[in-house]
Amino acid sequence: MNKKNPLTGPSFEPHKRPEKFVILLHGYGDNGENFIPLAQELYDLKLNANFFAPNAPSTVPQYPIGRQWFDLYPNGINFNEAGTKEKEILKQDCISSLNLLKKYIDVLCSKYLVTYKDFFILGFSQGAMMAFELGKYVNQVFAGCILLSGRILPSGSHNKKPFIKTPMMIVHGEQDTVIEPKYFDEACSILKKEGFLYESHLIKNEAHSISSKILYLVQKFIKKNI
Q1: How far apart are CA 92 and CA 77, in angstroms?
Q2: Which domain holds residue 33?
Q3: Its pTM surpasses 0.85
Q4: Is the pLDDT at 159 greater than 60, yes or no?
Q5: CB neighbours of 138 closer than 8 A, spacing ≥ 6?
Q6: Residues 116, 219, 123, CA angle at the centre, nearest 5°?
Q7: Is residue 187 part of a domain?
Q8: What count of other Cβ atoms lies within 10 Å of the Cβ of residue 2?
Q9: pLDDT in tens, 82-117
Q10: What integer pLDDT is reported at residue 1 of this predicted model?
Q11: Average pLDDT score over residue span 193-215
């Protein structure tokens, strides 16, 4: 595995002294530049929040402008069909990216003299997987964790406390063919079993995308937990 460089990416910073921060984690094959426009869609003066969209650390093979948080095909095998060796590769790849994400947020904490409780973590697709994994990895209370069209990766333990106190929202399109709705049901079951306080929305006639209706739900969730 190649060494990964520190994360960089675009931001939308309308406030000099923000009270909250929203970290936007893009999906597989996307990048921060393409994802940061969501910030202006979500922005509201009442939020007093700045937005950051780090680029995932690795490029997608044969698609250099696309980024990935972890390789979906370790040893050329789809991660859903991964064996022991492939699962270990995936795990280490994921941990490497999580470490970089933590450092990225720690820099912001130091710069603005804030804590993890001031951060919302929003992820789409593979970014949603990373959002939940980041909460587990840091194991602190965040302002909120928002999972859009994603899933929760299999794990033996979710290290419940104190991350379990983080407000959660999970949203999925009923017509999603990229990450099927069964993973929404699976994620809800995991959150319920682990004792998270969460809200869930399975949206009719929605595919693997972020619509204005979903953005409204996200904005409402952030306002509720600000």
Answers
A1: 16
A2: 11-224
A3: yes
A4: no
A5: 102, 105, 116, 163
A6: 55
A7: yes
A8: 7
A9: 777 877 888 888 999 999 999 999 999 999 999 999
A10: 47
A11: 95
Give the angle subtended at the CA of 119 by the CAs of 101 and 137, to the nearest 5°: 40
DSSP secondary structure letters along 62-104? TEEEEEESS-SSGGGS-GGG--HHHHHHHHHHHHHHHHHHHHH
Q: Please tell me the predicted confidence (pLDDT) of residue 214.
A: 97
> CB neighbours (10 Å) of residue 190?
19
Do the domain assignments include residue 156? yes
Longest CA–CA separation in the chain, Å: 49
For residue 162, being part of any structural domain is answered with yes
Cα–Cα dist 64/80, whole Å: 24
Spatial neighbors of 4 by CB under 8 A, at least 6 apart, are 57, 58, 96, 97, 100
* 58 CB-side CA count, 13 A: 19
Buried b (16+ CB within 10 A) or exposed e, 29-42: bbbbebbbebbeeb
CA 145/CA 167 separation, integer angstroms: 6
Distance CA 88, CA 96 (A): 12
Domain count, the chain: 1
- 5 lies in some domain: no
How many residues comprise the chain? 226
What does the mean pLDDT of the chain come to? Answer: 92
Q: Are 151 and 200 in contact (CB under 8 A)?
A: no
With H, G, I as helix, E, B as strand and everything else as coil, classify residue 108. Answer: helix
Residue 43: CATH number of its domain: 3.40.50.1820
Q: Are strands 119-124 and 144-148 parallel, antiparallel or unpaired?
A: parallel
